Amino acid sequence: MASIRLLRLSPTTSHLTLRSLPSLRPVKPTCTPSPQPRKLTITRMSYNPTPAPDRLISAVAYTLPFFNSLQYGRFLFHQYPPLASLINPLLSLYRSVPYASFVAFFALYLGVVRNPSFSHYVRFNSMQAVTLDVLLVLPVLLQRVLSPARAGFWFKVMVWFHNVLFAFAVLCFVYSVACCVLGRTPYLPFVADAAGRQI
Length: 199
Fold this sequence. Notes:
By secondary structure, the protein is mainly alpha-helical. The protein is 59% helix and 0% strand. It has eight helices and no strands. The longest helix has 30 residues, at 153-182. It is elongated and about 110 Å long.
C-alpha cells in the first residue's frame, strides 16, 4: 500500500488561529435585476459635402453640349420617329431663344468658369461641359470643309459617324448629370484632362 505522508503541525510553527480564518457565514443570495438589453439606435445620415446649389448648377451646365449634339442625331430621329417626338419639344424650346448656344457658351465660360466665387466643383464641371461642347463643334466644321456626297460610301460613313457622336454625347450627358446629382465629380475621357488644365 502506498503510504500517505501526514503533516504534523507543531504549536510553535502554526500561526493560524480560529480568528485568523475567514468566517464561514452563509451569504444570502441577492437578486439583482438582469440588465435590460440596450436598444440599438440606427441613425442614417446623408452626408454629402457638395451643396445642392453646386450640384444643380453643375448638372444644368451639361445641357449645353447635349442640346448642341442633337444635330448629330438627325439620322437616328429619321429612323426612329418616337425618339424624335421626345426630343422635338426640348429642341424647339431651345431654338426659340435666339443665339441660345452662343449666349449659353459665354455665360458658362465667363460667368461660371472664370468666376472665383463659385466652388471648384462647379467651375470644373462647367469647364468640362464647355470643352465637350467645343469638341462637338469640330466635326461640323470638318463636314463643312469636306462636304461629303449625299449618297454612296462616304455618306454612309458620315451617317455612322453622326450616330456614334450622338450616342457618345447622350452617354456623357446622362453620366455627368447622374454624377452631379449624387455630388460626385464626373470624369469624361479626354475632356476631363483638358478641362482640368484650364482651371
